[in-house]
Write a structure and sequence with these properties.
The chain is mainly beta and 525 residues long. The protein is built from 3 helices and 20 strands. The strands form 7 sheets. It has a 3-stranded antiparallel beta sheet with strand order 1-6-5, with no helix packed on it. The radius of gyration is 33 Å and the shape is elongated. InterPro entries: LysM, LysM_dom_sf, SipL_SPOCS_dom.
Amino acid sequence: MSLELEQRNIALIKQKGSRVLQMTIDEDINVPDIKPDIDKILQSNSVVNITGTDVYDSKVLVKGEFNCKVLYVPLNDSKPVHNMMSLIPIEESINIDDVSKNDSIKTEYVIEEMKITPINTRKINVKSIVQVKLMVDEKKEMYVPMDISGACDIQSKYDDITICKLHTSKKETYKIKDELAIPSSKPNIMEILWYDRSIKNKEFRIMDDKINIKGVIALDTLYLGESGENNLEFVEHEIPYNGVIECNGVNEDMYYDVDIKIVDDKIQIRPDLDGEERVFSVDIMTQLDIKVYSEEKDSILADVYSLSKDIDLEKESVEYETLLCKNQSQCKIKETIEIDSNEPDIMQIYYATGDVNIDNIDTFEDKVEVEGVVFSKIMYVAADDNNPINVYNAVLPFNQVIDTEGIKKDSRMSIRPSVNYINCSMLGEKELEVKCAVSLDTLVFHKNELNVINNITENELDIKRIQNTPSVVGYIVKDNETLWDIAKTYSTKVEDIRAVNNLDVTDVKRGDKLIIVKNIESLEI
């Protein structure tokens, strides 16, 4: 009866590579006819929405939208500030060797530079550099030998391995809706002039067949009150959300790598129960990038020999990953900032926002050092009748060391930064203090290489070699030798060596002295 390998197929995701694409935006945008002329740009917000990645001829075409919102001081208008918006389509391709339509492509973006310049009172120029990181994963199948059948005198060795598998990879949308009333001390809403929204206190938890998502949408709104054309009002709201995303087959023993971003929003004025315009109707669309990993422990066939046949083993090298660590850390930032002398004095802080960017990651023994910055925008009431609102841009550097025991230079990392909270307080007319916390969700994977048996060939036993082997051998164990290695070399059994030498230890060590008796079963065949 011929020998037969019993193999099992394990589906893996292997990182094929990553590329960085720089998308340059340079667009002239006209002020809408219904909006007044521009005197001064106060601030701008921009969001990138990657709508698709198409693969063709070793290239990836990245498509998306660049949504730009501008707040400005008008020229000769009764209202103190106005806003305008523009949606700019973006499209760029990048060469990636061996990329396939079957590959999984994940994108992350950072807006590295943003500059709004008035060309004249009716036109602005938008310049921006968007850095898009593309990570390409390919689906691989690894066939591992589990056992062998077909002969009674086969000696088999098994090794325990742990493989980290990508169980789930998908994108989902999650809608958040709410009706937000303004405080009773505030006047009715005439017009929404500006708003900022951001996600704080993100939490994710894996449950059976689903993922629980929790957090808070922080909404800061500047509006024009009905009590007068120059009546600027500011309100803050927090919208808690708590929901579940269906995710078949996942459970609490698995590991997640999840991110949530706002991709679209709509805020409208609604009347309250008394018919007064005192409610914001908020509709926010978020997108979740979900990856769930499972660890699978198996005992695989590592080596084989026979007492009655000569066996040739064909092996191939396969790569797989194990999860080294999952770490959630927080870096607190506290900075005292003195605004530039040419900026108007501070009378009152409205709010601050923050966008985090990682500049550098260094790997050391058992740790990772992350350096980055938080780009903060601080809106305040200015001591200037002509420009009652001002926005100051501040850069907050941070440095965080993350414990990652066992990490190596070739380990694969996923670090997701986010601003957990940001607060700003006034210290003086030209001085303010910013407090901020940056969360760093870290996953580290260790790369492993394994030689697995993929084919076995039987040959007739070399009887002459067996006959020439001494009946009894005195043997001194060498470096890194095991009982298995010695038994295979002398065509005997591990249990026979144990019995002859009265061994009750798991294995042997260098310098141990053994007696090896020739196994005569092969000569009797």
